[in-house]
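During the reporting period the student researcher (J.K.) took over the structure-prediction task from the postdoctoral fellow and processed the backlog of single-chain submissions. One of the processed entries is reproduced below for the supervisory committee.
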Amino acid sequence: MNPEGNLSASKAFNGLHGVRLDPHSPFSSLEMNKNGDFGHSSLVGNGQLLTVQKIWQQRPPCLRPIRCCSSGDRNLAERIANVVTSIPFIFLGMQTPRKNVNCKIYASSLVGVGVASSLYHASSGKLRKYLRWADYTMIATASVCLSRALRNENSKLLMAASAITLPLQPLMVSAVHTGMMEVTFAKRAVKDPDLKTAHTLHKMSSLIGGALFFADDIFPETPFLHAGWHLAAAVGVGTCNKLLE
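J.K. obtained the following structure tokens:
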């Protein structure tokens, strides 16, 4: 008898008077539901099931599907604050040096970040989840464009992989290219004394922004954390423009 037949038989016998299924059976079941979590339906060993479930449930946020933030913009004051603090990214994009094509593309992407963020925080209803995706995607796009503007030697394979992954996992793409930017900024600050002040300000704003980002996730009921993260991120982005001058 094949495993599927065993499973069907076990369901058929389950609940019959005088029949008890062995709780120590070496088989269990596993399935992935629409939310990306494992449930029970296909046959695997119990030990393997627990291991796979544990690893999958502990995967980082960058590997999870994007979900609409339900805790933000709880009232009109927060909504206005989040929209207003999104606007600086538009002005930063307008002020970004445009000495070559890559810099021009990055400047345009920064304007897109401000527009996407403003639209998301001003939205409601079913449209909101799509604008949340657009917001994350524009942030990832800007990080890729900045990485390209700073490092012309970026491999074509990396850029192609980023372009393919960006719509599906924008947070992961943002993390990779932001890390590359941080390394470039630190190296140039060591060689160029004129960048040390900007780099110090960048590090401070990055630390504050990171703390606010995680605090917004851990303490969702605390008001205006997201707006504070917008401002800290804007300061950090502004210091990056020094690298393009």
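The committee noted the following: Residues 6-31, 40-44 have pLDDT under 50 and may be disordered.
J.K. will present the remaining backlog at the next meeting.
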